[in-house]
Amino acid sequence: MIRILIADDHKMFREGLKQVLEDAPDIVVADEAGSGQEVLDKVRKNDYDLLLLDISMPGVSGLDVLKELKADRSGPSILILSMYPEEQYALRAIKLGASGYITKSSASDELIQAIRKISKGGTYISSSIAEKLLFSIKGDSERLPHETLSNREYQILLMIASGKTISQIADELCLSIKTVSTYRARILEKMNMKTNAELIHYAIKHNLLN
């Protein structure tokens, strides 16, 4: 049996996911978590074969959870299940050590296929992401400005570009307005920009909001 920990901050989504996975005789949902810190605590106390991890988690983000667990060099394989298109986060997730990336809009059969493949030691990513990953390994000489941002900075860039205000971002990420404002200033500095309008234009130009 493939023992899974489902990590998503929406209880209704977790319940729906459990119903989907019940149809697979070789998969069992052993536990669930609603925050990044809860994921870290449970993985360190229990044994799971695979962690099904959302990126948008309150407090400690999914990417930060991924980074921390992989730094420990222990724990389950990790499959990212996200609402974001793979163009936005898949490359970062795979570089941090995820075994796969799949969107929440994917069919149930595809999710189960991904889980089974990863549980056998494989990876589950699209050919386009595999190509980008190979290209990125060749060096950082041609990195785009947004690729220089930290995971949290990149997350906030996408939220700003989607039209969310500083206070909305702060509420969603469980951060203070001052902290989000600091991140925004750092993003603008790293990308050599001065306004949100420039960030939005950049995100559209580089297809980050697909």
Question: Could you state the oligomeric state of the chains shown?
Answer: single chain
CATH superfamily of the largest domain: Response regulator
Which parts are unreliable, with pLDDT below 50 for 5 consecutive residues or more?
none
Rg from Cα: 17 Å
Number of strands: 5
Number of domains: 2
Euclidean distance between termini CA atoms: 36 Å
How many helices? 10
CATH architecture of the largest domain, by name, is: 3-Layer(aba) Sandwich
The fraction of residues assigned to DSSP E strands is 5-15%
Can you list the strand order of the major beta sheet? 2-1-3-4-5
Structural class: alpha/beta
What helical percentage do the residues reach? 40-55%
Judging from the principal axes of the Cα atoms, what is the shape? globular
Instruction: Summarize the biggest pleated sheet.
Output: 5 strands, parallel
Could you please say which CATH topology of the largest domain applies here? Rossmann fold
Mean pLDDT: 88
CATH class of the largest domain: Alpha Beta
Order of helices and strands: EHEHEHEHEHHHHHH
What features would you describe in this structure?
With 210 residues, this protein is α/β, with parallel strands linked by helices. It has two domains: 2-137, Rossmann fold (3-Layer(aba) Sandwich); 145-205, Winged helix-like DNA-binding domain superfamily/Winged helix DNA-binding domain (Arc Repressor Mutant, subunit A, Orthogonal Bundle). The protein contains ten helices and five strands. The chain has helices spanning 11-21, 36-45, 62-71, 86-96, 108-119, 127-137, 151-161, 166-173, 177-190, 196-205, and strands spanning 2-7, 27-33, 50-53, 77-82, 100-103. A five-stranded parallel sheet has the order 2-1-3-4-5, with helices on both faces. Helix 4 packs across helix 6, helix 7 (151-161) packs across helix 9 and helix 7 packs across helix 10. The chain starts with a strand and ends in a 5-residue tail after the last helix. The model has no long low-confidence stretch (mean pLDDT 88).
